[in-house]
Amino acid sequence: xxxxxxxxxxxxxxxxxxxxxxxxxxxxxxxxxxxxxxxxxxxxxxxxxxxxxxxxxxxxxxxxxxxxxxxxxxxxxxxxxxxxxxxxxxxxxxxxxxxxxxxxxxxxxxxxxxxxxxxxxxxxxxxxxxxxxxx
Length: 135
Description:
Strand content: 15-25%
Radius of gyration: 14 Å
CATH architecture: 3-Layer(aba) Sandwich
CATH class: Alpha Beta
Structural class: alpha/beta
Order of helices and strands: HHHEEEHEHEH
Number of helices: 6
CATH topology: Trna Endonuclease, Chain: A, domain 1
Distance between the termini: 17 Å
Oligomer: single chain
Shape: globular
C-alpha cells in the first residue's frame, strides 16, 4: 500500500490520504508527504533529508517568513526533545517560526515548552484537517 502511495505521490495522482496511510509511513515517507502537502499549500520547501538537519527536517519559506519544521511520525506522544530540536533549528536557520508536525500528540510538558517558545504544534487533529483541505 505504501509503495502504491509513493508512486501516485510522485506522479501527482493521489487524492485519498488517510491517517491510516500516514500512520504506516516511515520517517522518510512522512517527510516527503509533508513536503508535498506544504507545496500544495503554497510554500517553497527544502527537505534536509540528505544533510545534518540541525533539528529541521523541512524548511518552508514564502514571501514573508522562513519556517523550520520538525516532522514526527510516532505511535506515542512527542516529548520535550522534539521541541528542543525545533527551538535550536529556529536559531540555527534564523527562521521566524518553528513548527512540530506529528501524526500523534505532544505530552503536556512538551506542549508547555512549545507554548513558552512560540512553537506551532500541528498535531494529529490539525494534520488530518490540513490533509482534508488539500488532498
